Protein backbone atom coordinates (compact mmCIF):
# COMPACT_ATOMS: atom_id res chain seq x y z
CA UNK A 1 0.00 0.00 0.00
CA UNK A 2 1.41 3.39 -0.98
CA UNK A 3 1.68 6.12 1.62
CA UNK A 4 -0.87 8.88 1.27
CA UNK A 5 0.14 12.46 0.59
CA UNK A 6 0.16 14.93 3.48
CA UNK A 7 -2.85 16.71 1.93
CA UNK A 8 -4.85 13.47 1.79
CA UNK A 9 -3.97 12.64 5.40
CA UNK A 10 -5.13 16.14 6.44
CA UNK A 11 -8.43 15.74 4.57
CA UNK A 12 -8.90 12.35 6.23
CA UNK A 13 -8.28 13.91 9.66
CA UNK A 14 -10.99 16.54 9.22
CA UNK A 15 -13.44 13.95 7.87
CA UNK A 16 -12.78 11.61 10.81
CA UNK A 17 -12.98 14.48 13.29
CA UNK A 18 -16.34 15.59 11.85
CA UNK A 19 -17.59 12.05 12.44
CA UNK A 20 -16.34 11.93 16.04
CA UNK A 21 -15.21 15.37 17.33
CA UNK A 22 -13.93 14.27 20.74
CA UNK A 23 -10.39 15.20 21.80
CA UNK A 24 -8.27 15.16 24.93
CA UNK A 25 -7.14 18.76 25.48
CA UNK A 26 -4.73 20.26 28.00
CA UNK A 27 -2.53 23.26 28.60
CA UNK A 28 1.10 22.22 28.28
CA UNK A 29 2.50 24.50 30.99
CA UNK A 30 -0.26 23.96 33.56
CA UNK A 31 0.98 20.58 34.85
CA UNK A 32 -2.57 19.26 34.79
CA UNK A 33 -4.05 16.31 32.99
CA UNK A 34 -5.81 16.73 29.68
CA UNK A 35 -9.56 16.41 29.63
CA UNK A 36 -12.12 15.31 27.05
CA UNK A 37 -13.74 18.14 25.09
CA UNK A 38 -16.03 18.19 22.07
CA UNK A 39 -14.69 20.23 19.19
CA UNK A 40 -16.98 22.48 17.21
CA UNK A 41 -15.70 22.51 13.64
CA UNK A 42 -16.04 25.49 11.34
CA UNK A 43 -15.10 24.84 7.71
CA UNK A 44 -14.36 28.56 7.30
CA UNK A 45 -11.61 28.45 9.95
CA UNK A 46 -8.43 26.72 8.84
CA UNK A 47 -6.27 25.32 11.67
CA UNK A 48 -8.81 26.21 14.36
CA UNK A 49 -10.86 24.08 16.73
CA UNK A 50 -13.58 25.61 18.90
CA UNK A 51 -14.78 24.40 22.30
CA UNK A 52 -17.58 25.58 24.55
CA UNK A 53 -16.40 25.34 28.17
CA UNK A 54 -17.29 26.79 31.54
CA UNK A 55 -15.33 29.87 32.53
CA UNK A 56 -14.06 27.82 35.47
CA UNK A 57 -12.71 25.07 33.16
CA UNK A 58 -8.96 24.49 33.36
CA UNK A 59 -8.39 25.41 29.68
CA UNK A 60 -10.50 28.59 29.81
CA UNK A 61 -7.54 30.70 30.94
CA UNK A 62 -5.74 29.86 27.70
CA UNK A 63 -2.11 29.28 26.83
CA UNK A 64 0.00 26.74 24.96
CA UNK A 65 -1.93 23.51 24.50
CA UNK A 66 -1.89 20.01 23.08
CA UNK A 67 -4.89 18.06 21.86
CA UNK A 68 -4.99 14.36 21.04
CA UNK A 69 -7.52 12.79 18.70
CA UNK A 70 -8.33 9.13 18.08
CA UNK A 71 -10.93 8.35 15.44
CA UNK A 72 -14.01 6.30 16.15
CA UNK A 73 -12.56 3.34 14.25
CA UNK A 74 -9.14 3.66 15.91
CA UNK A 75 -7.56 4.00 12.48
CA UNK A 76 -6.53 7.65 12.72
CA UNK A 77 -4.49 9.42 15.40
CA UNK A 78 -3.50 13.09 15.70
CA UNK A 79 -1.53 15.19 18.13
CA UNK A 80 -2.24 18.90 17.65
CA UNK A 81 -0.14 21.68 19.17
CA UNK A 82 -1.19 25.29 19.42
CA UNK A 83 -2.56 28.11 21.52
CA UNK A 84 -5.89 28.27 23.31
CA UNK A 85 -7.57 31.62 23.86
CA UNK A 86 -11.04 32.80 24.78
CA UNK A 87 -13.00 34.22 21.87
CA UNK A 88 -16.51 35.01 23.05
CA UNK A 89 -17.55 36.58 19.75
CA UNK A 90 -21.35 36.43 19.75
CA UNK A 91 -21.54 35.76 16.01
CA UNK A 92 -19.27 32.72 16.42
CA UNK A 93 -21.24 31.50 19.44
CA UNK A 94 -24.42 31.75 17.35
CA UNK A 95 -22.78 29.95 14.43
CA UNK A 96 -21.45 27.02 16.50
CA UNK A 97 -24.31 26.67 19.01
CA UNK A 98 -26.23 23.38 18.88
CA UNK A 99 -28.49 21.19 21.03
CA UNK A 100 -25.56 19.19 22.46
CA UNK A 101 -23.89 22.38 23.70
CA UNK A 102 -27.18 23.72 25.03
CA UNK A 103 -27.50 20.64 27.25
CA UNK A 104 -24.41 21.78 29.22
CA UNK A 105 -25.44 25.40 29.80
CA UNK A 106 -28.72 26.06 31.62
CA UNK A 107 -28.66 29.73 30.66
CA UNK A 108 -28.18 28.96 26.98
CA UNK A 109 -26.02 31.36 24.98
CA UNK A 110 -26.34 33.92 27.77
CA UNK A 111 -25.19 31.58 30.54
CA UNK A 112 -22.82 33.61 32.74
CA UNK A 113 -20.40 30.66 32.94
CA UNK A 114 -20.21 30.14 29.14
CA UNK A 115 -16.85 30.59 27.43
CA UNK A 116 -15.99 29.87 23.83
CA UNK A 117 -12.34 29.00 23.41
CA UNK A 118 -10.39 28.44 20.25
CA UNK A 119 -7.37 26.26 19.66
CA UNK A 120 -5.23 27.78 16.91
CA UNK A 121 -3.17 24.88 15.61
CA UNK A 122 0.54 25.61 15.06
CA UNK A 123 1.64 22.10 14.12
CA UNK A 124 0.36 18.57 14.05
CA UNK A 125 1.53 15.01 13.78
CA UNK A 126 -0.90 12.64 12.08
CA UNK A 127 -0.99 8.86 11.75
CA UNK A 128 -3.40 6.85 9.66
CA UNK A 129 -3.38 3.09 9.95
CA UNK A 130 -4.47 1.11 6.95
CA UNK A 131 -2.84 -2.28 7.13
CA UNK A 132 -2.51 -4.10 3.84
CA UNK A 133 -3.74 -7.67 3.53
CA UNK A 134 -0.18 -8.98 3.90
CA UNK A 135 0.29 -6.73 6.96
CA UNK A 136 -2.87 -8.14 8.57
CA UNK A 137 -1.69 -11.70 7.95
CA UNK A 138 1.71 -10.89 9.47
CA UNK A 139 -0.02 -9.43 12.55
CA UNK A 140 -2.00 -12.65 13.00
CA UNK A 141 1.10 -14.85 12.79
CA UNK A 142 3.74 -12.62 14.37
CA UNK A 143 5.55 -11.51 11.22
CA UNK A 144 7.37 -8.21 10.79
CA UNK A 145 5.26 -5.46 9.24
CA UNK A 146 7.14 -3.24 6.79
CA UNK A 147 6.55 0.52 6.65
CA UNK A 148 4.55 0.35 3.40
CA UNK A 149 2.14 -2.14 4.96
CA UNK A 150 1.20 -0.09 8.01
CA UNK A 151 -0.32 3.22 6.93
CA UNK A 152 0.66 6.85 6.58
CA UNK A 153 2.32 9.45 8.78
CA UNK A 154 2.78 13.21 8.45
CA UNK A 155 4.30 16.04 10.47
CA UNK A 156 2.69 19.27 9.29
CA UNK A 157 2.72 22.98 10.08
CA UNK A 158 -0.86 23.42 8.91
CA UNK A 159 -3.86 21.09 8.83
CA UNK A 160 -5.23 22.82 5.73
CA UNK A 161 -5.24 20.50 2.73
From TrEMBL:
UniProt superkingdom: Bacteria
InterPro entries assigned: Split_barrel_FMN-bd, Stress-Dev_Protein, YdaG_split_barrel_FMN-bd
Domain General stress protein FMN-binding split barrel: 11-139
PANTHER family: PROTEIN BLI-3
UniProt name for this protein: Pyridoxamine 5'-phosphate oxidase family protein
Organism: Sphingomonas floccifaciens
Amino acid sequence: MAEKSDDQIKRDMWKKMADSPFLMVGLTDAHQHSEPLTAQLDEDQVDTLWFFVGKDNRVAKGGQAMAQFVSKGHDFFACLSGTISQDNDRAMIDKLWNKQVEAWFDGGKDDPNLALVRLDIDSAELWETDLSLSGRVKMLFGGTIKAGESGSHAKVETTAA
